[in-house]
Amino acid sequence: MEKRYQVFVSSTYADLSDERQNVFRTLMEMDCMPAGMELFPAADEEQWDFIKKIIDDSDYYLIIIGGRYGSLTGEGISYTEKEFDYAVEKGIKVIALIHESPDDLSLSKSEKDPDLREKLDAFKDKVKDGRLVKFWNRAEELSGLVALSLTKTMKAYPAVGWTRADSLASDKANRKILELQDEIETLRKKISSLSSEAPEGAELLAQGSDTFVMRLKANYSNSHLPHHDPDKGYPLEFDLSISWDELFSMVGVPALHPVRETKLKSQLCTAIKDSYIKQLLEQCDEGYRLTGISISETIFQTIKYQFSALGYLNTLQEVKLSKDTEKEISFCELTPYGKRKLMEVRAIYRDSKPNRSSQKDALTRALLEAL
Length: 371
Hints:
- The protein is α/β, with parallel strands linked by helices.
- It has 2 domains: about 5-155, Rossmann fold (3-Layer(aba) Sandwich), CATH 3.40.50; about 200-370, no CATH class.
- Helices cover about 40% and strands about 20% of the residues.
- It contains 12 helices and 11 strands.
- The chain has helices spanning about 15-30, 50-55, 80-90, 115-130, 140-155, 170-195, 245-250, 260-275, 275-280, 295-310, 335-345, 355-370; strands at about 5-10, 35, 60-65, 95-100, 135, 210-220, 235-245, 260, 290-295, 315-320, 325-335.
- Helix 1 (about 15-30) links the parallel strand 1 and strand 2.
- Helix 1 (about 15-30) packs across helix 5 (about 140-155).
- The protein is globular.
- It comes from Microbulbifer rhizosphaerae.
- InterPro entries: DUF4062 (IPR025139).
- This is DUF4062 domain-containing protein.
- Keywords: Coiled coil.
């Protein structure tokens, strides 16, 4: 059966009218049904029940954020933020498009009130938390961003959609469809459970207290010497022996949410520097200080693939549009099993513990219930 998806478009109204028109046009070209403030441009509390019904009936939620926060509800938040909170509460998949350079917007499209600017910044942080967003500068860019983002979202998270009544299958076919839907749900739960436990054969891999020897490059500098002095700074390379659990403790925290591989590598280097600062300083001459450390891309990829093989880490690919080119960016994120493992590694145990093994089992059970 041919489906059409309803997409609720949320934004402030007057300052983003051109942007909304571009988005609506793109959605209709994609055979989607756009819904939004065009139906009720003067939002107020009396219309909120109607707005909620429209969101309830929508398959996806698309939010455009520019430089305005919008009119406030009785709770002190904007109607746009209230719509977003409700869509998230209902479990509707969110596609977020945020202006990349709000300071470049004209005064009429910017928030003048300092309190509202603060609310807008906090709202943008909320929208970006735990999800990938797309950034835009010109209204014309939105068509491509919407087409790319919505297509990927529909493929990854198929929704119920809408179908013409005269194209519905017979009762017998409908019952078969329901049976298949139940089977799909069962398989989804099975897939979810597989990502919540160690993969087959993981026990054969190095992990836990097993050590990994990694080559580090440390850079040292003497601030008392002039910049042109050849002895101003120098690098040193040496091997660091570190356990896989300690490495995972450093990698896991930034990867609780999707993080770029390049940023994850940088944060790993910072964590190693902070943890081994005393030993690193012992390697340099008197008068020099440690300015930073680095590891090779080969070593970082080895660490990443080891944690992927252990079932801790997933690698995600995102395509970013830049003018007429596409750039593929790699992100890393912990699996549910990886999140359990991270809490187990970083949890602080009581000093008086008669049976560490049973305590660890109890912690794991508690973490399973929390997840």
